[in-house]
Structure formats: C-alpha cells, structure tokens
Specification:
mainly beta; Jelly Rolls; 17 strands
Amino acid sequence: MKKIIFIGLLLLTSACGASTPTSASDPATATTVLTTPKTDPSATADLPTETATPEPPALYFTDEFDAASTYWNFFQLGGTQFPALIAQNGVLRIDISATDTWLIGIHTAHTYSNVFIRAKTTLAPSGSAGLICRYSKENGWYEFNLASNGDYSILLGEWLSSGVSKYTPIFSGTTDHFTENASNELGLFCNDNFLSLYVNNRLVHNMDVTNYGLAEGEIGITTSSFTELPMSAQFEWVRVDRE
C-alpha cells in the first residue's frame, strides 16, 4: 500500500461575508462574485515535512499523486466548511461537506501560453470537476467545468481582492459524451486564441476567446459541490502536454 499523504490547503482570508456561487449545473447568466470563508486553523491539514525544496517537474508532466508536491496550492471559494484533501494510492480525493463550495488547485511550477491539460475524474454523488489554464493572480484565468449531469461551462475567473473572486460566464452547454456515475477524462486545450474542450477524448466545444486577452499563466484543477452532500471528487491523474 502506498503512503498516505495529506495535502495542506492554502486558504485565503475573507474580505467580506460569504456569497452563494452559481454551480456549473445551473450556468450563470451574469457575473458571480465569490468570497472565501474566514480561516479556521483547525480545518487545515499539515503538509508533509520537507527537508529541501524539491526539483520542479518537467515542463510537460503527469501527476499521479503518488508523492507529496509543494507545487499545488489550493484555494476555497464560497461554502461554510473547508474541504478535506488526501492523496492515497495514486488518487487525489477532495471531500466537501458544505453546499455551494468551490475549490481550485493551481500548479505553480511553470507558466504556459499554449498547453493541453487532461485529468481523469470521478464525482459522487453530484458536483462538478474542471480544469484551469493561463492562471494569473493579476490577470485572471480560464476555467472549464463539467457537472455530473453533463452540463459544462467556460468561465473567466478574476481576483477582485484578497479572498474575493469574480466569475464571468463565457459559454455553457450540455454534452452526452460523459459517463454518469463513473470516471471521465476531461481535456482543455488552450491554443493561441482558442479554447477546445474535450470529454472522454471527444471535442465538445471550440471557442475563440480573443476578446478576453489572457496570454499565459499556470494550470490547475477545480471542483465544486451542489446540494447533495457529502460530495467527493477524485482525480486519478493530471497530465500537461504541448498538444
């Protein structure tokens, strides 16, 4: 059995009271502002002890969550309780016990302009999972979310201030390429001025995002809960490729 690795949350300080996010199963029609709950120190898991800063992974890599990584930073948005994260036996599991809770994880080792991100995910009983590209604290990020009922959305995320983010919907739709109550492979190809969305290796949407102007940034993953609790999301692996 592989070693159990607890992953600490990098939690932001709330700038104001919590607001209710719009879930990917009910795509927003207007900008949604999310705030981070006040920090609860008892809800933060400890990072494994590091004797030295590890070497970053190669520019293009696959993370199968077999070992601790200091290059993942997680942020909670909305919700009233902090999710629990644990990497065990090659799976990153995120357990959420509060409704309307969003969690994003940013991999900080490299920045990319054109990049293809893939991840194999499972959701139970419902919720959403997704991928992020061109993440920048200053400029924002692109986010692709797929809900457990097949609804998907493309969002533009932006930080307004410490602990306060804004989500602007770019596009939403529904796909029948996903498998309900099973593992699904998500793909997000950020290529020049286009975002291409894939579910189980099938293209579901291609969109020109020239008007939003994000040129480069870090990659990431995301998950959120709806009304059915507790919600658990599992990431078996995350792969970063040139194309």
